[in-house]
Amino acid sequence: LKIGFHRTLRVPEDGRVHLLPADFGLFPVQNMAAYEAKLRKSGNPSLLDMVRKSGVFFPIFQREALWLSFQVPKGSEYAIRVFVGGVNVVSGRKWDAPAKEGDHKDQDYIIVPQQKHLDGITVGDGVVRQFVAMPIGTGYSIEKQITGKEDVGGIQLEITPVSAKMRLSFANGAPIPWEQDSKTFAPRHYRLQPGEDIKMTRWDMGDAWLGGKRTTEQKKLIRELLKPSPNGVHIVTAEPPQESWAMGLAAGGLIKQEIRRDTNIYRSPRLNQATTTLISVQLLNSVAYEAITGMLCPPTPITMREYVNAGIPWFDNYKNQTASTEGAYNFNRIASVAEID
Q1: Which DSSP state fits 39?
Q2: Which among 90, 7, 74 has a CA at the least distance from the CA of 258?
Q3: Do 99 and 216 contact (CB within 8 A), yes or no?
Q4: Domain co-membership, 169 together with 121
Q5: Closest of 141, 339, 125, 115 to residue 239, by C-alpha
Q6: What is the C-alpha separation between 264 and 2, in angstroms, rounded?
Q7: Per-residue model confidence (pLDDT) at position 323
Q8: What distance in Å separates the CA atoms of residue 151 and residue 137, rounded to the nearest whole number?
Q9: Angle of CA points 285, 291, 23, to nearest 5°
Q10: Average pLDDT, the chain
């Protein structure tokens, strides 16, 4: 599974639904573990909190937009719950929201490879609000508007493999060629004879993420990030200071994009948690990134005028016959960056 974080242009927040903006390249993603010692020495509460969450990080400018891409090898399939500041981008609900009647009918995840990319939070049938970075503590973030707090920040990915390679072979090791799909064949299709022994070997999906290394200490679910006290006493933590170096995601303009519906009617909506891995993705402002890594950030994003003058096209998604999800009612009350301004 390959996940990319892409720079892009912000679409206008004018109430109209826009086509997908073009790609301006990948953000330089860094492993948090490589800079842990330096982050701890900084003494900045926000950076110390990022060390606790571990995972990966990348730099992003204030009011810059981004989108996520997903690629998997042929035959692989993943269900991914995407959260921004602990808020599910498909359902609009908090990660720890109690179950309610009808939840079993709702899809709160995306299926990869059917979903090639994700540009924002789902606000309607075939419509999302673009991801736009804003500083933690300013009140713009989706997390702040939904939960009233800003104690998670960044992006969280709950990744669950929902398919695994299966290998059929004779007992002597000779392989039986077959395609793992929904088709069912009789034994004679594989030239099997009565009395022959068959072995089936499951090739589980590995747990090497983002370049072949586990980059987060949290090996299970997002709830591990904010585990409540077993005695019922809840610890209230102060929100990061106004000068926080961490960035959250706010809502931008409207973009035409479908969240593909999971067509496997037999798949449990409560996915197998035993095989789920959480990746925490933290966002740093440009000043903090340069101070921590010693590397310059990518150039300041170009403006709409430069975008149009360059003649870079806007892309309309190919629309196939797969149904889409209808959007999250909870996001109807989300104000965009321009509306808050």
Answers
A1: H
A2: 90
A3: no
A4: no
A5: 141
A6: 23
A7: 46
A8: 10
A9: 40
A10: 74
Residues 252, 119: Cα–Cα separation, whole Å: 10
Domain that holds residue 221: 2-161+214-340
Write the DSSP string, 270-327: S--GGG-EEEEEEEE-HHHHHHHHS-PPPPPPPPHHHHHHTTPPPBPPP--S--B---
Q: Are residues 173 and 222 in the same domain?
A: no
Q: Is the pLDDT of residue 41 over 50?
A: yes
| Euclidean distance between CA atoms 320 and 285, whole angstroms | 38
Count of CA atoms in the C-beta half-sphere (13 A) of 163: 17
Residue 86 — very low, low, confident or very high, per pLDDT cuts 50/70/90?
very high
pLDDT of residue 319: 40
What is the reported pTM? Answer: 0.71
The better pLDDT of the pair 147, 101 is held by 147
Q: Count of domains in the chain?
A: 2
Between CA 247 and CA 153 the distance in angstroms is 7
Using alpha carbons only, give the angle 117, 155, 123 rounded to the nearest 5 degrees.
60
83 and 75 in contact (C-beta within 8 Å)?
no
Cβ 63 vs Cβ 252: under 8 Å = no
The pLDDT score that the predictor gives to residue 215 is 38
Mean pLDDT of 264-270: 61
Q: In angstroms, what CA-CA distances link 254 with 14, 123, 124?
A: 8, 9, 10
* Tens of pLDDT, residues 109-158: 999 999 999 999 999 889 999 999 999 888 999 999 999 998 888 999 99
236 and 283, same domain (yes or no): yes
pLDDT in tens, 196-242: 665 554 444 333 333 333 334 444 444 554 444 444 443 334 444 43
Identify whether 231 is part of a domain: yes
Same domain, 123 and 194: no
Answer yes or no: do 103 and 245 share one domain.
yes
Residue 173 and residue 114 share a domain: no
